[in-house]
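Hi R.,

Here are the chain sequences for the assembly we discussed:
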Amino acid sequence: MSASAPLLQLTDVTIRFGGLTAVSSVTADVREGELAGLIGPNGAGKTTLFNLITGVYQPTEGRIDFASAGTAGRRPFHLTGLGIARTFQNIRLFPSLSVAENVRVAFHRHLRHGVWHSLLRGRSFVAEETELAARALELLGIFNLERLRDAPARSLSYGDQRRLEIVRALATQPRLLLLDEPAAGMNPSEKDELMRLIRFVRDRFGLAVLLVEHDMKVVMGICERIHVLEYGRKIAEGSPAEVRADPRVIAAYLGD
Amino acid sequence: MAFPKAQRWLLAALLLSGGASALSGSIDPYFLDVVMGVGVGIVLASSLNLINGFTGQFSLGHAGFMAVGAYTSAMLSTVVAPRTGLGPVALQWVFFPASLVAGGAVAALAGLAVGAPSLRLKGDYLAIVTLGFGEIIRVVLQNVDAVGGARGLTGVPAHTNLLWTFGTASLTVYTVWALLESTRGRGFLAVADDEVAAEAMGLDTTRYKITAFGIGSFFAGVAGGLYAHLKGYLNPGGFSFDKSIEIVVMVILGGMGRHAGVVFAAILLTLLPEGLRELGSRSIPNPFGGPAWSLDWIKDARMILYSLLLILLMLLRPEGLFHRRPSRMPSS
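And here is the predicted structure of the full complex:
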């Protein structure tokens, strides 16, 4: 991978739902290993952009490239296989599965064994299952969730559910992690902890992070570069200091 | 999640079925018929549990897939078998299992044919499509003279014995269990829980659903073959919507997505009508003297009692008889 080509490149991406243009001609990029932020007032199109990047929606116009390959026509599971993982604004865990099983399901794309192996249950199948159980625990350990491994995911506290979603996304071994409002509903000390964790995860796994967040302390605190959306258009891009001083951004948030 | 002992259980169950089968000559034929009906019920309920319970796809067409398997294997036994020149032993121990597998395979193909285009549908919509499919199968069978039409298909040899029924039942339960008890298998539950999240975690949800439909229909087809060679006679009316509902009720009563619960529910619901029939032929002594009280009315009210029991169960235990209530904390 050349250093010049960004990991994720959006070029003039537009999506219309009937008469509504939710995202309009957005050009943006995320570099390898970068901590990038996406902000904007409510309804600016941030989550829609996430859904475009992950293949939930297909752009009406423009193109999205991940690792220098076009993503048009790819379904979400395929893009996850290529290295894009995400969390959801409204937590979407598998509520009936245990905490550890939520993580193990996300190993899916790396499984060596097929359906027949689970019927025959040979030695190498058991070995792989044991190895996956250990890896799930190891990942949960990073987020201090291993003590809850056998609890049903639905029984976790809100903050723990948010963190479990991040662990689950990491289990897919992504190169790009999309976090949709990871700090929502967290108290100040949990937010500090989250910021530390996001930095740690980026360094430990060497992945790029793009996060949507309303909490300015979190965004300004960890993002190296911020993209600002308003009414589906990109109005600014730059370092936290640049974005904070941008008159268009101030106008978007405070009104003219 | 991995249980190395699982295959030993399967082996024990197969041996037990074989042993019981060897002794079946000394068992009352009516009782034997009921017991084998239980075995067929277990195959049907466990296979539907994979689709409805674990994968969360509400299918109402299981009797249709059963019918496909039943007619396929019955036609093989009545039309093809006599021309092979095989002896009775070869027919029961080689040709019959092969015809069961063939019936299962054709049913699985039917499952894929229905599943592939309709799996974009969810909940009620999928239920209606599968219901429609089941009815189409029944109506087609009723109108094709080659398979007996509305008169039914007679003269199916009685190849089904305890080994074939309970061997198949053990294999079905084992297959569904083994499929689920693996990292890949947990994907079925993930698809049932949240399809969007499952896709985002790299799971091809369509493929999971089609796999569930294919395997579920396969075993429904095998169950149909067992049923055909148990009764010796097939009638399209036996594979109506009522039959599908009966299997769905087993799955719901057993607690959607519980392995053992659904097996117990299948046993219970197959025995219940027989038990009530038996009860109806008895009478209780009159404590005030005079003629004994006949319980003959139970014979007439059998289906009403059965329905009432189901209504009561659903009111008192909507999560199923054998479902442990998960500990739930108040969610925000």
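The longest helix of chain A spans residues 123-142. Chain A touches chain B through 48 residues (CB under 8 Å).

Let me know if anything looks off.

Best,
T.
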